[in-house]
Amino acid sequence: QVVNYAPFTLLPSTVPRVLFEQAYAVQQDFNLLVDAISQNKEFLEKTLASTIKVDDFTARLFRIYTQVLEEGLAQTVFLGINRSDYMFDCGLDGTAALRQIEINTIAASFGGLTSRTADVHRLVLKVLGKTEEASRLLPNNPAKGLASGIAKAWELYGSQRAVVMFLVEDVQRNIFDQRCVENELWNRNIRVVRKRFRDVFEQGSLDASRRLFIAEQTFCVFFFSHGVVAPLLPQNWEARLLLERSRAVKCPDIATQLAGTKKVQQELSRPGTLEKLLPGHPEAIARIRATFAGLYSLDEGEEGDRIAATAIADPDRFVLKPQREGGGNNLYGEELREVLEKIKDSPERTSYILMDKIKPQPALNYLLRAHSPLQMSECISELGIFGVYVRQGQELVLNQAAGHLLRTKAIEHADGGVAAGVAVLDTPYLV
Ligand code: ADP
Ligand code: MG
Fold this sequence. Notes:
Layout: E1 8-9, E2 13-15, H1 17-25, H2 27-38, H3 41-54, H4 56-71, E3 77-90, E4 96-104, H5 114-127, H6 131-135, H7 142-157, E5 163-168, H8 175-187, E6 192-196, H9 197-203, E7 204-206, E8 212-214, E9 217-224, H10 234-245, E10 249-251, H11 254-259, H12 262-268, H13 273-277, H14 282-289, E11 295-297, H15 302-313, E12 318-322, H16 333-343, E13 352-356, E14 363-368, E15 376-392, E16 395-410, E17 424-426, E18 428-430
Parallel strand pairs: 2-18, 5-6, 5-9, 9-10
Antiparallel strand pairs: 1-14, 3-4, 3-15, 7-8, 8-9, 11-13, 12-13, 14-15, 15-16, 16-17
Helix pairs in contact: 3-4, 4-10, 7-8, 9-10, 15-16
The structure holds adenosine-5'-diphosphate and magnesium ion.
Adenosine-5'-diphosphate binds at residues 85, 101-102, 293, 319, 321, 325-327, 329-330, 355-358, 382, 415, 417.
């Protein structure tokens, strides 16, 4: 095994305090919203109808979703772990505004590693003689927050023998991030195992009450640290179906995964949609809406034609996003223009959404990465807030923000996160 340190900035980056607090204040609202979407079949069906015609990955997820609903859900405890990501859009007058990039409802990573980054930056500041500044860095422990959600779900599942499983990739590059969360569970005397899709496929079975067994062990909670990137092997889809049919708590279940698609995000920005999804929560709706950037549907029809033409004429205003997760898939500038030009009259267009491009104010920092030369770069940051909630039947028994993540990258990279080798871990220094 070859082990590298996780990449990080030499210095913490400044973040406007009001925007940081705004991001925390809206997290419980986003938890509520994701949970509501995951229970709204009609909304998911309608919103994803155009996407599943052209996007095979989403279509397969959707097929499992409907199949499991037809059989009837065995799962009664629901656990959501998400991360809402933001950038700070710099207006013409120089003031910054909080703008949501996306909400990740599956495999929201770096909660573990980032529980350590504040310590690193505190030390660096002390070495530089900045003791006062060092003392101002906030404590941050998403590993603990996420583990408390998993532990709650485990407890409600109600079997001391049941085991928590982390579903991992064959080659796992981010194992230490997951270990931080895992260790928090062991500290609470909850057993954790790591398995791959293949193990579930080869050894998994359900009993009459749809409890899940893998190699004799019963499982209660599945934490997907994988399952995002298409295409999956046919046997992985089989395994996913088995998991979804089971009584075990999936984090996320397939409905919650669908709630995190970019198409759903775009639909949420339509006037009236939030009101339908969260009736009786006008304040939550206002807080949520205040973070939205402009989002546009490329569905067939006049509305889609118009925005496609606008983007072709002025590509630097927009980002073109396919229904993919994991970084490195979005299109910008000339490339956006070329692709949109090519697909503008074909149904393929509907597998994308358009979004206003957020333009943050860059700042100087050093990005430290194994085997990379050390140089000062102009950087921009993306703030993520972790959210965790647990629902039993219809009752929300836990709903909280569970810590934050700051990722920073050089401005020459339009796209890409830490896993894609572009962004590095950072700590907010509130100003
Ligand atoms: P993914 O699912 O691949 O993570 P994101 O929507 O998070 O997709 O986009 C990946 C990256 O692209 C983000 O981390 C951000 O750096 C950049 N990005 C995404 N949307 C925008 C936007 N509207 N404006 C500017 N940059 C964006
Ligand atoms: Mg992202």
